[in-house]
Request: fold
Amino acid sequence: MRRAAAAPAGLEDRVCVAELSGQLVALRAAAVAAALPMARLAHPPNRPPILEGLLSLPDGALPVLRLSRLLGLPDRPPTAASAILRLRGDRPRGLLVDRVRGLSPVRVADLQPVEPGSSFADIAIAGFGVAGEPCLLLDPARLLLREEEARLEAFRTLGDRRLADLGPDGV
Reply:
């Protein structure tokens, strides 16, 4: 995905729209580094419930979060259409979604604030329509508490060590 700049108020911004448990969710395109196809994940023991698993990538282990659990939505088993949205930032992480719809323009003036407390840690920051369907705009900076970030970082570091022990050929 190409990096999108933030839009001034009243103009358009681009969002990455995805399906999650029968609902549409979106993240600003600038926050999403890539939409990856569903792949086999490592499932470390004693992982927190929001951590679906670790995805092995050439640059290290990527913690993949169950976004549905953060939003209080029912879990659906991953399918061939499922995807992992790799987020930008200092601490890499991925979000498991049922399907990516793609990039969509949204006018900043069309964003409607959501009621505070309506989602865990106020992850949902606004609502808008996509082709007549309601969609929630999410703020990735609000995904995790500091303690959760530290736990995920520990799991990512463990995954990186395991990958290094396997060597370059994965054996």
Q: What stands out?
A: The chain has two helices and eleven strands. The helical segments are 67-70, 146-166.
